[in-house]
Amino acid sequence: MTAPATTPAAVQARWRYHAAASQAVRAYPGALGELAYRELTAYADLGHLFGHNGLLARLVEDLLAVPAHGDAYSSSASASAARAAPSVSTGR
Questions:
Q1: Residues 59-71, buried b or exposed e (16+ Cβ, 10 A)?
Q2: Residue 43: how many CB atoms within 10 A of its CB?
Q3: Which of 18, 71, 25 is nearest to 46 (CA)?
Q4: 52-67, pLDDT tens digit by residue?
Q5: C-alpha to C-alpha distance for 41 and 37, rounded to whole angstroms
Q6: How many CA atoms lie within 13 A of 55 on its CB side?
Q7: Is the pTM of this model over 0.85?
């Protein structure tokens, strides 16, 4: 098993993932926040072992844009989620 990189950029990236994980639980209490927290902390700690597809990096940016008081619905996170969400027809 290889050790994670210790360059300043790598340390900063891991710090951002941990910060976004903490923000996830504050902004999205419940299962969604817990899921985001677990994924982001696992990636921060073990991400150097896996490929990078950009999804978690976008999640970090969205979560860190959420206001500190946790009003997730007025942030860019919900706006980007609305843009990225596929449209679903209800058939009515």
A1: bbebbbebeeeee
A2: 24
A3: 18
A4: 778 888 989 999 998 7
A5: 6
A6: 9
A7: no
